[in-house]
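Lab notebook, bench 4. Still working through the backlog of constructs that have no structural model yet. Next entry is a single chain of 302 residues. Request: give me the structure tokens for it.
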Amino acid sequence: MAGNTVEFPMSVSKTDVDSNEFDIGDFTPRLLTHPVLLSALNSHVRHCWIEFLLTNEVKPHVIFKFNFTEGYQVGGRNFVSCRLSMELHRDENGHQGPGACLLKVCSYTGRTARARAAFQFQVSRPWPLSEAINAICGTHRRLPDSMRSNLAVFHFVEIPHGGSPLYDGCRDWIAQVFVRLHYLGLVAWDIEGIVSPEQAEELSPDKEPELYDSNRERFRPLPGSDCPPIDWHTAGFHDVIGKFFQKPERKVFLDESGKQYIAPMIYYRRLDLEEGMVLSSVTRFYQSQSVPHRALPYRSQR
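Model written out:
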């Protein structure tokens, strides 16, 4: 990758050029001149979060959240971060299952309001967002041949759920992208901190989000029944991606002076990853390629 050049597979764009949401699988040279998108791709990432969003009580929807080192303004709108995720959509025949790899440029630095849990991973150095996009598309020059598949083209898998089907696979997609980002040295594998639940989309662009480290009890998620506890002192990506974080409960804590206060507490249970379908030749990785003994919790590997 030369500088901040973005090297995408060519396709026909269906994206509304007035939007702040862009489908990575539909990028074209014309769309790459869009000022919101172009500025985002050239923005440098300072925070990398994995957020578990509320969708239903069966499975979470998991996304990347990247905060920029500096915000920018286009058409009177301020942009300071972005969300990157694989979203379920209907194809031209109305069938569900195909995914859309969406980049949504955002105006908040706090945690997404629907996030039940959010974890920060250390960024080795500020890097342009275009590096992550090239990693997803398999066009980053430092990727090995085994990571050259285009992860922007993806299908969810249907899982049984009563009379109405649910679709799973977003965590599979997140895991495969995270393996690439970590291989490239862009993000650390270990969890740097737990993002405060009180700060949801309300931080000003110049305010840093508060993190709770592993030594603080407040908002340290707890295991539910029949779920081994996470050691938050050594926890990594593999410890959280295979979990379902339940609806927060209010819990009474004692501060250092012995005074009581109430804060939300979240419990988690095990939920192994289902494999989606990448529509190109792909090598699926079941563990970190740089850190030993970091197996990803895939159902097929149990």
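Notes after review: Residues 21-288 form one domain. The chain has four helices and 18 strands. Flag for follow-up if needed.
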